[in-house]
Each structure stands twice: as structure tokens, then as C-alpha cells.
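Hi team,

Below is the intake form for ABC transporter substrate-binding protein from Paraherbaspirillum soli. Please confirm the fields before the structure is written into the shared record.

FORM ID: S-0412
PROTEIN: ABC transporter substrate-binding protein
ORGANISM: Paraherbaspirillum soli
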Amino acid sequence: MRNAVIAASLALTLNAAVNAAEPIKIGSVLSVTGTAAFLGDPELKTLQVYVDKINADGGVLGRKLQLISYDDASDAGKANGFTKRLIEADKVDFIIGGTTTGATMAMVPLVQKATIPFISLSGAVVVVEPVKKWVFKTSHTDRMAAEKIFEDMKKRGLSKVGLLSETSGFGQSGRKETQSVAAQYGITLVSDETYGQKDTDMTAQLTKIKGQPGVQAILVFGLGQGPAVATKNYGQLGMHALPLYQSHGVASEEYIRLAGVAAEGVRLPAPALLIADALPAADAQKAIVTSYRKTYRDRYKVEPSSFGGYALDALTLAVDAIKRAGSTDKEKVRDALETARGVAGTAGVINMSAKDHMGLDLSAFRMVEAKGGKWQPVN
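The structure came back. Fields below:
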């Protein structure tokens, strides 16, 4: 009997040691190439540098993190296929990704069925409304972006707006949410134009908007390079008398670089990261955004973007949930995610709940303006 007890005890000890040595597998599907590489490349780089950093500091629960990442090349169909691979072959504990709304929504049914905690990095409100048990997100929604922009327009006495939106999932959702909240802010959409994700010229659409009687401002809702093309065309058409707004889909220094001098004066809602140096010392996000900028710069020798910041927030939430769950048990980790409170991220201070799987309110957005090739806070 005594030998049996000793054997059982030894087996438990060995199993515990094996489990402790096994890495915690973080899966990701990101648009590192293709039309959304503008977003996905910094997301992957952020995950890589912070997984290395966490492992160098001892890992999580005494276990190393293992990042298993696939590039969907900005193709939602590929995102679906790679998610299956993460679930069935790689057997990951957690999934971060879905750079775009299209990719995310292709992944959602799979993670829901497999009951794996999933944090999306995409912007559309449909990701978390209605609430889906296993799905969370870190980026601000398109509805929030429209509301923040309309708040600023109202302050400037602008009420007649020309809308130019992308036909991608993000752009379509942005258009819908813009239309849904416009009246609440006294905004009339006097023009409603669209462009394709791969279009290289929007002169025709902008000319139509310019010709609308009484138009006072332009709002472009898209991501990647399209909005920069629209901005260049806006400059070529001499439309600077009409204030130009962009969504958070281009909240990065890269947008200014791509759009060039035509971006001067453009306004958009952005995370605190874009204006880290201008934040007061007492700001709840100051420490995290300045630390992230330094870490990313030191590793890659370039400025980070808000999209990379969304990836950092997702990894931060995942690690926090695993620690509080005390294991990688998927149900426990999911429950811990849903009860995350007061987590300072690059996108804002995150407070999740059973009814809110994003945890950000409108105050998480900062209105910024391009001045002298840099983003500056709007006073």
C-alpha cells in the first residue's frame, strides 16, 4: 500500500513538473502582408518583443510563453484556415488577432465552437455587439470614432459632412455607425461615397463631395493605404478649405508619411500613444505608453503605432487573466478576462464586464491633429 502511495505521489510530482515545463501557447493570426500590413506588421512585432520580454522575466506561472503566429496576407479566408490550424494542430491556449474586421469575423465562429479565449485587434463594433462569450477586443470601435469626430465637428460649428468610406468590413461598419449617430450630434451627411480597398485614386468621389451644396467637412472611414491616397487626392484638388477627418483606422505616424504634406491639419480620434510626450505625468496611461514607445524603438528603431499598441493590450490582458486564473484552464481564463478592471493599456484604462467585452469608453480617445509632420493634441 505504502509503495502504491509513493508511486502515485511520484507520478503527480512528475506530471506537475512536465506541465510546469510546457509553454503557454499564444496563437495569433495577423495581416502582416497585403493591404492591411500597415496594421498587422507592428502588431506582430509588438507580440514578438513582449513575449521575449516576459520570458526573460521568468514567464507566466513559471512557464514560458510560446508565440505561434500566421500571416493571413489580409485575406479573411486565410484567417479562417489558420485559426483552424491554431486550434486543431497547434492546440493553443489563447488566440490574439484578427487584424481586420473581416478576418476577425471569419475567426469568431471557430473560437466560439472550440471555446478558446480570443482577443481581436479590429475596430468594428460588430466584434463585441452582441456580446459573444469567448470574444473580446482591445481597439476602440468605429461607433466611438464617429462620436468623437462629431463632438469635435460640433465644437467647430461644422454640421454638413461628406462621407467617403471603404468597402472593406471595417469601412462598411464605419459607414453604418457614422450614419446611425450623426443625427445625435446635429450632423447631416450631404454626400455618401465609397472606394475599394485596392483603389489607387479617389479623385472622382472627392470631386462629387466638393460639389455638394453647403458641404463643410469631409470624413474618410477606412484603414491601410486607402485613406492616405484619399488625403493626397484631397490636396491635389485644393480642398483644404474643407476640414478633413480620418478614423482611428489610420492612427499612426505612417499615415502622415504616406499622405505627405496633404495630411497637414487632418484630425482624427486616437489612443494616447500617439501623443505620449504631451501627456501630463499624472495621466493614467503615461507610464504604459512611454514604456511601450521605448521598448519598441529600442528593438525596431522606428516609432510604434496604435495598432501595435492594441496587440500589447491584448497580450497584457491575456497574461493578467492567466495569472488571476492561476492556470490556462480556458473557462477560468475567459472568466478572468471578463472581470478585468482598471487595466491601464495603450488604448485606455480597460474595465471589462459580462455586458462589455471591450471595456473602453469615449474618454479613451484623444482628438489629435497633424501638424508639422507629427500628431499633436487638439486643445
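SUMMARY LINE: Residues 2-140+287-357 form a domain with the Rossmann fold fold (CATH 3.40.50.2300).

Thanks, M.
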